[in-house]
Amino acid sequence: MSPEVDGAESAGSAPIRVLLDESVPHDLVEHLRDFAATTVQALGWAGMKNGALLRAASEAGFAVLVTVDRRMEYQQNIARSGLALVVLRARTTRVVDLLPLLPSLRAALRQARSGAVTHVGD
């Protein structure tokens, strides 16, 4: 897997594969149509521990994991995971509070680099 993620969809390349963690409302995937986004629940991976989830996501070819779990970056070795991690920070995890973060989230997804952690929001 390339260490860089260049954009949602540049000429001749596939869209960035994005996985939304179980902690992220699954409705948010509808707002990321310009990416190849899916949810942990859609893959049947709900309940998977973070370390196993990172391994499974990397092995499945995902480039970015989006979460609202502010502890994941400290509990897991993101640098060695083969994924970029985007941590959403909002007042709550409700979609209404996450929607204002969408422009910044999209930008973060386009600029994500394997092994890096990006914070979006407060």
Concise description?
This protein is 23% helix and 19% strand. It contains four helices and five strands. The chain has helices at 50-59, 72-75, 95-98, 102-111; strands spanning 17-20, 36-39, 64-67, 84-89, 117-121.
* Class inferred from helices and paired strands: alpha/beta
Termini gap: 31 Å
Compute the number of helices. Answer: 4
Order of helices and strands: EEHEHEHHE
Mean pLDDT: 90
**Using only CA atoms, what is the Rg?**
13 Å
Query: What are the segments in which pLDDT stays under 50 over at least 5 consecutive residues?
Result: 1-10
Can you count the beta strands? 5
The biggest beta sheet is recorded as:
5 strands, parallel
Strand order of the largest sheet: 2-1-3-4-5
Shape: globular
What number of structural domains do the residues give? 1
Strand content: 15-25%
What is the helix content?
Answer: 10-25%
